[in-house]
Amino acid sequence: MTLITRRSILIAGTATAGALLVPVASATAAPTRIASGTKISVGSGETYELSATTRLSELSIAEGGRITAPDGYSVTLTVDGVETGQLLTETGGTETLISAGTYRGAVVLTVAEANAVTYETLTFPFRQAVYVGADGVVTAKSVLSSVRGGKLTNTLAKGVAITSTGECFDGVFVQNASYTLQKPVISLTGNGRCDFAGYGAAVVGTGSSTTLVVDGARIATKGVVRTTVIANDGANVIVKNSELRARNGVLPADYQATVETPYMESVPWMLGLDGNVRATNLIGANTKATYINSSVFSETWGALSVEGGRGLQLTAINSSVGNTGTYGYGTYAIGDATVRVLGSRFDVGSYATIIAGPAASVHYGDSTRAAVAELNSSLGLGLSAAELAALPVRNTVVNSGHFGYMFFGAGALKLDGGTVVNSEKATFLNKGQQTAITVDGSGGARLNPRNGIILQMIELDDPGPVNVDGKMLNTGVYTEPTGDPTKDSAFDVTAVHPADGAATFSSIALKGDFYNGMRKGKNMVLTFEDSTVQGVISATGAKHHVSTIDASNFYELGEVTNTVQPAVNNGVVVQLNSGSAWTVTGTSYLTKLALAAGAAVRAPRGKSVTMTVDGTATAVEPGGTYSGAIVLTVQ
């Protein structure tokens, strides 16, 4: 049955209209099951199709009753200006329906033009409070009854409030447009569905012609993949002076954890994490997302995420970023993404950054005037001279409850300026990847691993997904290898290979150990420039604390015990350049050691260090180069 409607006007500033004139229809031809002209009751098994937006005082839907819109349209329920009632019809599906119940108050059923967004194999029927296109706000695609207060124009939304307690409802969707959100307050409670598409996000900026500025926002979400901000498909999204918070929801009882991104609603536990919502996501090609003087926190999983695509740029300037729960990361770097963290504080559960390669580039440093000005220009941030002047110069501080940085794929990581990394476990956890780590301490950078390990190399302990009835599910189990590794005669443990785990430290004083626990051919290559290091540098046998790891004890990933021993396929190549000195604090097994004329190898005060090369006692001398089975022993 179709409800026949006529148009009326809600004037700007009313509770349901926001600040635009909003066309709304009210019932005139009341079917027999409506007690009055402002009430609708839908019985069990009935489908009630609305042809236009309708305002009511009461809506009643029995179990099995449905309210729908014509093809090419969606219907959304708001009560007293709050989107509510909408639930997904099935786990892994895309469609939503208004759930059974009785709704009273200022009830509006908005019939809006469809906003179908395709991501890989699925098309998601987006509904949003405000849809902005190239020419401004598109009222026909917007649910303006959910926009309260403030000012809404074709270029600016100022002081608006959007609240949702239903599922998969977006706050603001901007596509191929220039738009500013100033001091919005957005609260979304209830599950989303796909944070690769932004289905259920508070704010989405998408399209190569989009420049979206979010200034002074207060955005809070609670729900599965109910993301705060999504930047997609070449958009330039700039978030400043804002607070973003995302809390986990409750996964559907029949949800199966998967790595298939159209269906993924929880973090793959193989990253050593748990959780089901990321605070933000950056996706697509040549998309940019910048967070300035803002606070971005997820409960677990991740705060500033990058997923797929190419040419992605993620930047945090003078911001607070992290996790309120036990596990989670600050940033993620995949593909060829460029991630910059300047003058920011990270308080993370597990990692400051997960580097997933294969060509990711990550930089942590200071928010110097020159650096911020350059980014203002190159990223098109649009910061005024006054805004630039108001940003103080700060160093970056990382506080991690587990590791500093984890390499899950190849990539480059640079730490400089006054960056300080405080971590409970190893500063750098390399899971068998090609790395280019550079740490420049000339500006005061410091590494403070509480367990005394600066760099830990181990085999990748991700068991990977399992194909179950054609679905890639996260049901794998990691099993600790038994026995000694088999020597690969073709791999040279004394050479430097392009795929090795390399790190360079300059102008810094280091205190901590470096362990290469790889079983297969990959060397740890360390270069020290005008630096001092106190600790053990060695090949090791690395063994996890437990023999098997699955979703129930994911937190054991990366947790190993080291036993120093001669290298098999895990060479340790150390270059001490001019002005560098290594104070050896315990037995260390190397495969190559080179000292510049101004470099030294020492023992702690009151002790002595000796070296053997292939079993022959050999003096360690400045300017010397040694290769083979090298053992340094402290006496």
Percentage beta strand: over 45%
End-to-end separation = 91 Å
Structural shape: elongated
- As a whole number of angstroms, the C-alpha radius of gyration is 29 Å
Q: Report the structural category.
A: mainly beta
Number of separate helices:
2
Number of strands: 66
The low-pLDDT segments are 1-37
The share of residues in helices is under 10%
How is this structure best described in words?
This protein is an all-beta fold and 635 residues long. The chain has two helices and 66 strands. The N and C termini lie far apart (91 Å). The relative contact order is 0.06.
Provide a brief overview of the structure.
This protein is an all-beta fold.
Please write out the topology.
Layout: E1 2-3, E2 5-10, E3 22-27, E4 39-42, E5 47-50, E6 54-61, E7 66-68, E8 73-79, E9 82-83, E10 86-88, E11 96-98, E12 101-113, E13 115-119, E14 122-126, E15 128-133, E16 136-137, E17 147-148, E18 151-152, E19 156-158, E20 161-164, E21 170-175, E22 178-182, E23 185-189, E24 203-206, E25 211-215, E26 218-222, E27 229-232, E28 236-240, E29 243-247, E30 278-282, E31 288-292, E32 295-298, E33 302-306, E34 313-317, E35 320-323, E36 329-335, E37 338-342, E38 345-348, E39 351-358, E40 360-365, H1 369-378, H2 385-390, E41 397-400, E42 405-407, E43 411-415, E44 420-423, E45 428-431, E46 435-440, E47 446-449, E48 453-458, E49 466-468, E50 471-473, E51 478-479, E52 501-506, E53 509-511, E54 513-516, E55 524-529, E56 532-535, E57 537-544, E58 548-549, E59 560-564, E60 572-576, E61 581-584, E62 588-595, E63 600-602, E64 609-613, E65 616-618, E66 625-634
